[in-house]
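Exercise (ungraded).
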Amino acid sequence: MKEDFRFGKRHGAFLFVMLMLAAIPFMGEPFYVRLASRILIYGLCALSLDLILGYGGMVSLGHAAFLGVGAYTTGILFHNGVQSAWIVWSAAVGISGAAALVIGAISLRTTGVYFIMITLAFAQMIFYFCASLEAYGGDDGMAMWSRNTFGGGLDLDSPVRLYYLILVALAVAFFLSRRLVDSRFGRVIRGIRENEGRMRSIGYPTFQYKLVLFVISGAAAGFAGVLLANLNGYISPALIHWTRSGEILVMVILGGMGTLIGPILGAACLLLAEEILSGFTQHWMIFLGPLLILVVLFGRGGLVGLATRGRYRG
Amino acid sequence: MADALLSVKGATKWFGALAATDGVGLDLYPGEIHALIGPNGAGKTTLIHQITGELTPDEGSIHFRGRDITRLPVHRRAGLGLARTYQITNIFEGFSVLENVSLAVQARSGHSFRFWRRAATIRELYEPGMAVLDLVGLADWADRPAASLSHGDQRKVAIAMALAMNPEVLLLDEPLAGMGPRSARDLIEVLDGLRGTHALLLVEHDMDAVFSLADRISVLVYGRIIASGRPEAIREDQAVMEAYLGEGEEAVGALETVLEKGTTCSH
C-alpha cells in the first residue's frame, strides 16, 4: 500500500469550498468579510475541541479558557509594546499549550462528569484571574488599536488580508488534523476513546497520549484566540466565560463530533443563525434551542451525520 | 526444571471480608500450557487481573522473568510480554479486524507519538497483523468492521490481538466460551500450535479442551489452589472430585466424562 495521491471527490469538494470562501472579499461588503472571519476563527477553535471531544472522547467544558489565554497573551504583549506576530503568536501558542499541560495533567486523572466539572472549574479560575487584571481593563477588558505585524511593511491592518490569513490558518489546521487523526498517534487516540482499559492492557500508557492531545488542542485554541484578538481589536473576560465554552461545545455537537468538517460547519451554522435571528429578536436562543434539540435527536452525528446518513464518515 | 517465567507467590486479594484469592501460588514455565480450572467464583479471573495489574494483590508477589512486577502498571507489564484475553469479548468494535490487530503490533513497536505518516499505510504494522490473522484463520475478514463479525470470530480477533503483541506469556480467560464446536476445534488447534513458543495460562470450563491441551493443571477452589500437577494426576485427585461434586450435576457430568475417557485425550 503505497501512499499515492489521487485527486478524488473529497479533494474536489475541498477545493470548491476554499474557492468560494476566497471569493467572499470580492463581494465588496466589509461586513461579510468580518462575519466570515469570525466563523472561520470559531471553526478553528471548534476543530481543536473536536480533537479531544470527538476523537479522544474527552468532554471538556472549559475550552474557551485556551481561546482566552491566546487572546490575553496577544493583548498584554500589545500593551507592553510587542506587536511582532512572530513573537506574539509563538508566545500565545506556547503559553496556551503550557496552560493545557497543567490543566490536562490534573483533569485527565478524572473521567466523565468529573472531567467536565474540573475543566469548567479551571476555565472559571482563568476567567476570574483575567477579570481581576486591573492593569489590563479588569472586567471591561482592553482595546488593541492596531494589529500584529510581520515586519517589512507586512501588517494585518487590512481586514481582507487578515481574512485570507485566517482562511489559510484554518486550511492548514484542517490538513494537519487530518494527518493527525490518521497517524499512529491518532489511531491510539481513537482506541482510547473506544476502550481505554483495553488500550492499557495491550501496552499503551494512555494518560500520556491523552495529555499530548490535550496540549495540541489547547495550543490550537490559543492560536484561534490570537486571531480573534486581532480581528476584534478588543479582548475581554467574556471570551473565557463558561457560556463561551458551551457555545464551542454546541458548535462541535451541532456540526458532528468525530469529523473534521463538522465543527467548522457547526460554527458557521451557529454564528449565522445568531446573526440572522438576532435581527428579529434578542432572544434568538429561543429559536436555536429547539433546532439544536432536533439535530441531536434525529441527526446522530450532527449535520455531517444528516448529510452522510449511513455512509462512511471520516 | 528451568526457572519459572511467571511466578505467583501467596497472592491474596480481599473483596471486603471475602478472600477472592487466598495465598495462591502458581508457576508458569516457558513453553508450557498450564490450565487453571475451578468452579465459578473460585477466583480465576481475579488471579488473572492480579497478574496483568488490573488488580493489585493485598498480599503476595508476582514475578516475571525473575523481576518483581507486583506494583508495575498494566501497560508496563504488557510491554514486558504479558498479554491477555478477556472472558467477555473485548475488542475495538469500531475498528476493522486488521486495525484491531495492527494496534496491538503498534503497541510493541516503540512509542506512538508519531503524527505524520498514515497508520494504514505502514507495512511494519499491517504485515505482522495479517500474519497473525492468517494464523487464526481471519485473513479474509481483515477489512471488515470488527463489530460485524460473529461472536466466535470476535473472540478469535481478541486472541489474534494478544498474539500480535508478540508476548512470552498469554493469559487466556475462557477463550472457548460461547464458541461453536467448529470454531472451538480450530482454536484448540491454534493454541496447541503455540506450545513451545509461548507460555499459556488457560482458564477454561471446557474439560475436553483442558485435558487435551494442558501440560499441567492447577485447580482453584474458593480462592485456594487445591491441586496442581500433570493431567493424569489431577484426574485421579480425590479433592478435585469432591470440589466438583459441589458444582451441580452438569459440571460433575462433564468432568466424569473426561475422567472416563482416560488416556485417550492426554498428550
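Further reading is listed at the end of the chapter. For now, observe: Residues 92-165 of chain B form one domain. The mean pLDDT of chain B is 90.
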